[in-house]
Amino acid sequence: MDKAVSWTANDRSKLQDLRDRIVAAQDRLKLKNSFHDGHQARARELLSRYELLQSQLAADVEDMESHGHHVSRLEKSVLDWVNGLEFDR
What we know:
Layout: H1 9-66, H2 73-84
């Protein structure tokens, strides 16, 4: 009972629509994965930068306090902000 399949224009249109949706979904997944991969590296870089800035802040505060200057929370906050600025760009 072999029957030849005859595709109508409507069938071809439905298959083309299905193909287009599959390709679009694959593209979205590729894009999603590329963002995810980049986020992991970026998160590590940000954490590393944060740890560096915090150690610089602690060293600055320790240096100022060793010279008899009390450093308030506001001063620490301002120092932290200044340390975060990038003047070389």
